[in-house]
């Protein structure tokens, strides 16, 4: 076994009503909180639980609920300004990946203000407000990563900022907040988690521990695929807990390994066309794994075994049944996105070493070329 470094500083608290039941864990973070969230948290009960936990432990708070999907720099700058004005000493992020990423960005910008044009230049210090994360979707794993993915209008894509200081101090996992999620959001976020687990197996930074988490995440997600395929879609609270656990595991994977080609290729589909992030990843993941099977068959076989499958064809078919995506783009667009993705730093540590031709092949063989006269892919 080769040497490795594994860092996971986030304390994970899992279980029913864990936020209100273990709210005392918030006390060491500070006396004044800024809750960063979107509007859905008031509907799923997470915001009310956070307010209860803070009040029960004598903490003051204000709420910034301006987060929307794919958070912009205007959004996180406004949140950071509110944090400074209210004297917030810590941040509670509530929501899906967008809200949690925004919370981490707010936490750093509150202490390290920067103009928009310098936000993606790196070089962050450790002077960051502590963050407690409460995920209300199961996909990004942002509650256990050091990344914050933001809309980058300068580069016309999505770009992550990162630092070890961005890891949340606490992550509260409770599947009850996801009971009201519809099929599309549930499936797309599950596909995002799956992409994290699979991509994390094919980077130079993967470790034996991250591989274990990746394979367990794949196993759990595929065990739930039959329920995700059902026409009369319905998941129990326990099923939601399992999805959330699998997402968290996959988050710990990319915290060590980072993401790879699928994310680099999916970002322009989201930025330019509004394709949900998880769906964009999911429709590309099968062909990426097929390429990996040619170049790294042993690792691919481990993933297939964890999924209970024998071939990459079965893997692709399972994803198509679950996603039911009709996303489609022109060939010219896909050629441009392949050129752009080939320059993405995410490809530097990829063990299967895809080039621009490989990336275009993944796009095309994923059936994404728009048919003439329709909006559907081939």
TrEMBL record:
Domain named Alcohol dehydrogenase iron-type/glycerol dehydrogenase GldA: residues: 9-174
Record carries keyword Oxidoreductase: yes
InterPro entries for this protein: ADH_Fe/GldA, ADH_Fe_C, Alcohol_dehydrogenase_Fe
Listed name of the protein: Iron-containing alcohol dehydrogenase
GO molecular function, one term: alcohol dehydrogenase (NAD+) activity
Keyword Transmembrane helix: no
Organism in which the protein naturally occurs: Candidatus Scatosoma pullistercoris
UniProtKB keywords: Oxidoreductase
Domain Fe-containing alcohol dehydrogenase-like C-terminal span(s) in chain numbering: 186-312
Pfam families the record matches: ADH_Fe_C (PF25137), Fe-ADH (PF00465)
Origin superkingdom: Bacteria
């Amino acid at each position: 076994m080769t040497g490795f470094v594994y860092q996971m500083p986030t304390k994970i608290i899992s279980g029913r009503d864990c936020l209100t039941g273990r709210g005392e864990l918030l006390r060491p973070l500070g006396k004044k909180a800024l809750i960063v969230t979107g509007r859905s948290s008031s509907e799923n009960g997470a915001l009310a639980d956070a307010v209860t936990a803070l009040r029960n432990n004598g903490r003051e708070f204000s709420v910034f609920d301006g987060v929307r999907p794919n958070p912009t720099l205007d959004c996180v700058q406004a949140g950071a300004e509110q944090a400074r004005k209210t004297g917030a000493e810590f941040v509670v992020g509530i929501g899906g990946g967008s809200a949690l990423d925004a919370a981490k960005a707010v936490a750093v910008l509150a202490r390290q203000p920067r103009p928009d044009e310098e936000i993606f230049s790196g070089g962050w210090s450790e002077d960051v407000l502590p963050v407690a994360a409460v995920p209300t979707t199961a996909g990004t794993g942002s509650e256990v990563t050091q990344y914050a993915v933001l809309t980058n209008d300068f580069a016309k894509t999505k770009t992550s900022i990162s630092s070890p200081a961005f890891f949340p101090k606490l992550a509260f996992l409770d599947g009850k907040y996801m009971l009201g999620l519809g099929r599309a959001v549930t499936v797309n976020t599950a596909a995002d988690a799956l992409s994290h687990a699979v991509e994390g197996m094919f980077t130079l930074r993967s470790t034996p521990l991250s591989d274990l988490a990746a394979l367990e995440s794949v196993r759990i997600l595929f065990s739930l695929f039959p329920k995700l395929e059902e026409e009369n879609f319905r998941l129990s609270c326990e099923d939601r807990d399992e999805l959330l656990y699998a997402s968290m595991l996959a988050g710990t994977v990319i915290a060590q390994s980072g993401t790879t080609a699928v994310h680099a290729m999916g970002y322009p589909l989201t930025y330019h066309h509004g394709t949900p992030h998880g769906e964009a990843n999911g429709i590309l993941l099968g062909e990426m794994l097929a390429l990996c099977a040619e170049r790294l068959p042993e690792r691919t076989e481990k993933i297939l075994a964890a999924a209970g499958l024998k071939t990459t064809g079965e893997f692709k078919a399972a994803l198509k049944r679950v996603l039911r995506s009709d996303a489609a783009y022109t060939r010219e667009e896909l050629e441009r996105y392949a050129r752009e993705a080939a320059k993405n730093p995410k490809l530097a540590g990829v063990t299967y070493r895809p080039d621009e031709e490989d990336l275009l092949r993944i796009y095309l063989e994923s059936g994404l070329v728009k048919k003439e006269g329709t909006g559907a892919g081939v």
